[in-house]
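Researcher: I'm preparing a figure for a lab meeting and need a structural model of a single chain. I don't have an experimental structure, so a prediction will have to do for now. The sequence is pasted below. Please return the structure as tokens so I can convert it later.
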Amino acid sequence: MPPVPGATVPGLYTQPPVQTMLIAVRARRVIPLAGEGPARDPRDLFSPPRVLDDHVVVIRGVFLDGAGQAALTDGACTTPPDANVPDGANAPDGVGAPNGADGAARVLSGLRGGVIEAVEPMDAFRRRAGVPLSDLGEVTLTPGVVNCHTHLELSHLAGRTVLGGGFVPWVKSLLSLVAAGAETPPDVRAAALTEAARQLAACHTAHVGDITAVAPAAVHRAMQAASIGCSHFAEVFGYRFTTPDGEPAAPADTAALWPRAMAELASDLAADDIVPSGPTGASPAPGAPFPLHPDAALAGHSLYSTHPVALAAARRWCERNHRVFSMHLAEHPDEVEFLTTGRGALADLLAVRVLPPGFAAPGMRPVPYAADLGLLDEGTLAVHCVQLDASDIRLLAESGAHVCLCPRSNAAISVGTAPARALAAAGTPLCLGTDSLASNHDLDLWNEARALRDLPAGHDLPPAALLRLLTVGGAAALGRGDIGAIVPGRRARLALLPQDFSQALGTTP
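Model: Understood. Here is the structure written out token by token.
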């Protein structure tokens, strides 16, 4: 049944009283990924997706007021002119001329505020009366892509960090830039966020999982302006914590783990057009010092930088409040060396201002240590997972945790390559993230999939698997039941399949 004004669709969203109308788009091909979830069997991940020929997607548009101002005007969604991608790589299949590509993208951009009501053959749609139709031409529609790991508040640091020398030199350069961040004018930060949103919209991003500590409200506003959903992960960092009143707090006290900036995010909720269901509106949550935005969750920075009790407390809070728990895991060799021996360049760096007196390393590799702390299960998003051996891969698969691969960031910093094919073969549910512009060229998730495809560890991942990582896998990893497939009741956040992917999938005529 289609959504109606003021109705609640279980598991999707609460829609305030509005005016609505039906709009339709026709595409030569639609890949709906209907009925699919996170692929734990490689046969499901690798199997060719179902392709619907000559179909129409009917969308119920959302109107904000009686004057008829529709939430269907987000502006053009075009590839950034300076994007570092192969010629024509992001041109949608069947749209060769720039005006054609821009026109189709502009139509989809205008529909992002709506909800899918029906997916039907063109012959069936002809029997509908009074529904305006936009014919996108010889294109293939897919669900919008889901970028599961970003640091958007670092967007103003694009091109300024030390790359190629490993993790410690990179993070040292990042920390020095962050320390000088107070000198960055607000308008520069705002412009960087606007550009980041533009890049995300250009590749038809439906939702991002963003790590935040200082600017969640600004990130939220930028994503909302681009009609991009955002899960805000409030990162827990360090070994010493204080209450909101400044008193020392135990690491198990989750009220002391929340960055104060997250309070600003909740105050922005009143401006949202559509509010996610579950926790409706900003409201007090057990273990939080202030009302929370329903898309906010605690997250762990890493095993080496955060008190293990705090990590476990944050994970339990997410479980109790039905949120995804995200953390960086097994990203670089320095992490493995530090956790197993307590020595190395990372140990020297952490000793300066992070580690408490008398700290002793756990003497374990990252993945078994995370499992020992109770951090790995189906509600966990483990980011990077580069430094893995065979037993780590097996343990991750058995835990049910989702793994977010960030191949270009890993290559830029020079920390190694995640064993993507081995993880997929073991049954680990996978997704993709771009990481931040402080360690990547752009925020185009299609480029992330191309990079993974071209790496030795992922070159035999078929294009069908890459498409699922980009869409349904990401939606499942972030716990989003409102995106990831083109089916009735989901948000109308759609993507045009780039030509190279269409050719690889065999959907090009």
